[in-house]
Predict the structure.
Amino acid sequence: MPDNRIGLEIDGQVAVVTLDRAEKRNALNAAMIDGLAAACRTIEQNATVRVVILTGAGNRAFSAGGDIQAWSGKAPNDFGRFWLREGHDAFAAVARLRQPVIAVLNGDVFGGGLELAACADLRIAEQHVRIALPETGLGIIPGWSGTQRASRRFGAQLVRRMALFGEVFDADAALRLGIVDHIVEGGAGIVAARQIAAQVCGRAPLATELTKMLVNAAEGEETERVLEAIAGIAAARSEDLQEGLAAFRDKRPARF
């Protein structure tokens, strides 16, 4: 994988993806967006990976969002066509991973960082985190599905409170409001995530994958792909397919 400041470590059944730009509070630039999408492709193609942990380097920030220097100089058309669209594609790749994704929020979760955290299936917050959508204070919108996926997963009113009124939530408030699922002490997030990952690995892999797909579809995340994927799995396991392939190889009419 190219030097894009996205770390990927695969340890048996667990993949750990790290936003590795601690000196910039793990703010996302174009190379990191590309690297995130590439990491998702690698994970999808690895048959042994059962769970994904997503975190940021250091302890100051999970991610401070999109790097202002990376996008502020772009022409409006390029901003929409490339920065926002490619970010959407990369974040969708995280949300649609077949494996459950656990986000370890080990520091501030601002803007695009929260939009990325919303792609996870479970969020563990370390006690010192702050969570916010500050974009409108800069004259821009939460453009990586902060008004869409985040509204579906956290509730539209919470998004309004952060994005329109500038509220910043600490870990306790985020837990109470359902933005995060667990709180741990500072530095304990990865250990907690690995414990939960071990529990997931003890569950049936196909049933887990299919259930995640169905829940995503219920949220409107990927209804068409889910329907066709599940139907395709059923067809691929059928005797009809085996007979069809045998007939093709033998150059004879199929006997269904």
